[in-house]
Specification:
With 365 residues, the protein is mostly helical. The protein is 46% helix and 6% strand. It has 13 helices and five strands. A three-stranded antiparallel beta sheet has the order 3-4-5. A hairpin with a 5-residue loop joins strand 4 (84-86) and strand 5.
């Protein structure tokens, strides 16, 4: 058995759930496979109904995985909706494949007929489409049978076992019956939709582990914590009155106490601002100023002399101006010489043109 599981672990296909290893404990065989974070097709169908494109994508994946098993020389043996896994990213894979119903140490080797696997794949496709292949003649047609009769007839034909024992033949029949629904772009869109459906209904890892480890155990509700004791108010310490300092006298009182006579303040101010010689020559503060006679005219104040006019001083020519004048000097000299030449030579040219010189003609001999 372990050698058989090792051969199964060598299979690699996108529509097969990889087998990682196995071990034997007593009379039981434990097979380890890759963890699938999605859910089975049976759980998905129990929660929601699938559309025709989604069912076609599932059927194509199931038939492709079964074809990979047949190429490797194996059979599934227990194909149904519970052994078809839909991952969280939409990939459809077969699980529990190649497990022969044998006890440990049994040497019998009875593989199931490949026709059963192909017929089981047809029943999985019918379940995804919502078609009952076992209904009697009195049963009414389903929605898919009324809207897509070609696809429904193909699924019923595969489920009845008329497709033969080859999964490749079933794949071609399904592709022809689905038509445009089996195109690559439409299948990719359906896989993305299946991934969203699988993510919406998958249980958490903690819930899955609890359901496996203790399926019949009632959930344990932790006891409520005791209420916290009420806080008593802490009495505040008695307030101690501190002795207050005597208020300082107001500014007006302080100013009044330090007030000096006005005449003394003015005298101090005059002494601080007037030169010493003026203070010595000034009359005493108690003497009254002398009065001007009535018949004497008041002295006139001298008007200030007008300020002299300041002419603007022209700036001296700088080196840049001298350089500019030196630059244009040859051109000016050339222009003057040309003008002088025109004045002197011009009349002579005009005179020679207006009075041409007659040349003597040669005498004929």
């Amino acid at each position: 058995m372990l050698a058989h599981v090792r051969r199964l672990s060598t299979l690699s296909h996108p529509n097969l759930l990889p087998i990682l290893g196995a071990r034997i404990e007593g009379d039981r065989l434990w097979v380890y496979s890759e963890y699938d974070d999605g859910q089975s097709l049976a759980a998905l169908l129990a929660r929601t109904a699938l559309t025709a494109p989604q069912s076609v994508a599932i059927g194509i994946a199931v038939v492709a995985g079964l074809e990979a098993l047949q190429r490797g020389g194996f059979a599934h043996g227990s194909l149904d909706t519970t052994t078809v896994q839909v991952a969280s990213y939409g990939q459809v894979r077969l699980s529990d494949y190649g497990m022969r119903p044998l006890a440990v140490g049994d040497k019998a080797s009875t593989w199931p007929d490949p026709r059963r696997d192909v017929s089981a794949a047809g029943r999985v496709i019918c379940a995804a489409l919502g078609i009952d292949p076992e209904r009697g003649a009195d049963g009414g047609p389903s929605v898919v049978e009324r809207t897509l009769p070609g696809l429904a007839a193909t699924a019923l034909t595969i489920a009845s076992g008329s497709a033969g024992r080859s999964a490749a033949t079933a794949a071609m029949m399904l592709s022809d019956g689905a038509g445009r629904l089996a195109s690559r772009s439409r299948v990719y869109l359906s896989i993305a939709e299946l991934g969203r459906l699988a993510q919406a209904g998958r249980p958490t890892i903690e819930a899955a582990i609890d359901s496996v480890m203790a399926p019949n155990q009632a959930p344990v509700i932790p006891p409520m914590p005791p209420p916290a004791p009420a806080l008593k108010p802490v009495p505040s310490a008695p307030s101690v009155e501190r002795p207050r300092a005597k208020p300082s006298p107001p500014a007006a009182a302080r100013a009044a106490s330090s007030r000096v006579p006005l005449t003394l303040a003015l005298r101090r101010l005059a002494q601080a601002t007037v030169p010493a010689a003026t203070i010595a020559a000034a009359p005493p503060a108690a003497a009254t100023p002398a009065r001007r006679p009535e018949n004497q005219a008041a002295p006139r104040l001298k008007e200030p002399a007008p300020a002299p006019l300041v002419r603007p001083i022209m700036p001296a020519p700088g080196p840049h101006r001298t350089a500019r004048a030196t630059r244009y000097l040859p051109y000016l000299l050339a222009a003057g010489g040309l003008l002088l030449l025109v004045v002197l030579v011009g009349p002579m040219l005009v005179r020679g043109v207006s009075h041409p010189v007659a040349r003597p003609s040669s005498a004929l001999t």
